[in-house]
């Protein structure tokens, strides 16, 4: 399993979050069950959510194009 942590020398930024202790405990527990550091677990969640959103948009665009039907003369 590859880590989403940037490779040395890769540009990155810091994001600081203030979250309730209860949520932090839940995230930490989920990360531990998967054997991941909390940072890696959260990065994977964000990447997965971004992928899901982009996939949903692509499917909607494809459906809109399909509504036009097959090209004439096919």
Count of individual beta strands: 0
Structural class: mainly alpha
Provide the succession of SSEs.
Answer: HH
In angstroms, what separates the terminal alpha carbons?
46 Å
Question: What's the alpha carbon Rg, rounded to whole Å?
Answer: 19 Å
Low-pLDDT regions: none
Number of helices: 2
Average pLDDT works out at: 83
Strand residue percentage: under 5%
Helix percent reads 55-70%
- Let me know the largest β-sheet: none
Shape: elongated
Brief descriptors of the model:
single chain, 74 residues, mainly alpha, 2 helices, 0% strand, elongated
Can you describe this structure?
The structure is a single chain. The protein has 74 residues and is an all-alpha fold. Helix content is 57%, strand content 0%. The protein has helices at 21-33, 38-66. It starts with 20 loop residues before the first helix and ends in an 8-residue tail after the last helix. 0% of the residues are buried. The model has no long low-confidence stretch (mean pLDDT 83).
């Amino acid at each position: 399993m590859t880590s989403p942590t940037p490779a040395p020398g890769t540009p990155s930024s810091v994001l600081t979050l203030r979250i309730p202790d209860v949520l932090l405990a839940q995230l930490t527990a989920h990360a531990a069950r998967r054997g991941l550091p909390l940072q890696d677990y959260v990065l994977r969640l964000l990447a997965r959510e971004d992928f899901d959103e982009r996939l949903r948009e692509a499917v909607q665009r494809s459906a809109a194009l399909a509504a036009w039907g097959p090209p004439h003369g096919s």
